[in-house]
Amino acid sequence: MRWNRKDLLGIEPLSAEEINHLLNTAFSFREISTRPIKKVPALRGKTIVNLFFEPSTRTRTSFELAGKRLSADILNITVSASSVVKGETLIDTAANLEALKIDMIIMRHSASGAPHFLASHTKASIINAGDGWHEHPTQALLDMLTIKDKLGRIEDVKVAIIGDLLHSRVGRSNIWALTKLGADVRVCAPRTLIPSSLEKLGVKVYWDVGEAIRDADVIYLLRIQLERQKANYFPSIREYARLFGIDREKLRRARKDAIIMHPGPINRDVELASDVADSQNSVILEQVTNGLAVRMAALYLCSGGDIESEDTY
User: Fold this and answer.
1) Looking at residue 85, what DSSP letter applies?
2) 2 is in an annotated binding site
3) Per the annotation, does 87 bind a ligand?
4) Where on this chain does carbamoyl phosphate bind (predicted)?
5) Domain boundaries, the chain
6) Splitting the chain (313 residues) into consecutive groups of 10 residues, what average pLDDT does each group show?
7) Rounded Cα gap, residues 235 and 168, in angstroms
8) 280 is an annotated ligand-binding site residue
């Protein structure tokens, strides 16, 4: 297939074929980072703006490095040092960037739908780097790449997603991607952290972690997002860790070769015991590596490139 989208705003609107096309492109780009000279001219002459309205280390850095590996010019704009603090609107910020003839904006925003709003008001390509509680598409894609790389497939793989599903854009994007690709998805969290409509997305809801991870191939821990919680959703961190954190004892319920995943940053000994996070089952750092390849693929395809018709790298 050929990629025909100007923007990458979420996983929900993508078909399984489009997701697989992105993953196949990312597989081919992954090799570039193993070369002695880790740079190709695929996006030479293109200008990409990292526009982050929320703090980020790994996502922003990963996008910046992905652009540089493809020879693009990169501008990093932090909101605290921009005209936004003087009252400039989002559309005016985008219009001024567009007047500088930029080609693409990578956007993270605390408001769900902000990248979609911007995409409808600018000719530049928009890639959603996380919007509110809504979606984080490149995180889901790097997770799919990691599962496919480690297990050889996604269809029929048993995936248990544990944690703050109410506030997690990562959880929502992963559920969209996994169900579209045919995985068996289970979710588990305190009742207060599971949206009432989640089962409509094709997942099974569990309240007991031991049951949720029984025979699981993948255990995916979501971070407890205390910064987004406006109320007390569980009695204490200690109780959450005891009931829903994954330690060696609980891990015995899963398959012996089950992989442990986490989008980071980890709250060690809360969602995940330190010795499990650092164990041979953990593929958390491989997720980070795959994130670079996925973001190179997203930048390349949304800029008009297509691996099946061109050979520019």
Assistant:
1) G
2) no
3) no
4) 58-59, 108, 136, 139, 264-265
5) 16-135+289-309, 137-287
6) 93 97 96 95 96 90 97 88 74 89 95 94 95 96 98 98 94 97 97 90 95 97 73 80 94 95 93 95 97 98 73 51
7) 20
8) no
Q: Is 58 annotated as a binding residue?
A: yes
Hunting for tokens 């821990």 — which residue is that? 221
* Residue 169, marked binder: yes
Does the annotation list 265 as a binding residue?
A: yes
Residue 227: per-residue pLDDT: 59
0.85 surpassed by pTM = yes
Residue 91 confidence (pLDDT): 86
Letter string b/e over residues 194-225, b meaning 16 or more CB atoms within 10 A of that residue's CB: bbeebeeeebebbeebeebbeebbbbbbbbbb
What is the CATH number assigned to the segment(s) 137-287? 3.40.50.1370
* CATH level 3 topology of 16-135+289-309: Rossmann fold (3.40.50)
Element (DSSP H or E) covering residue 290: helix 284-302
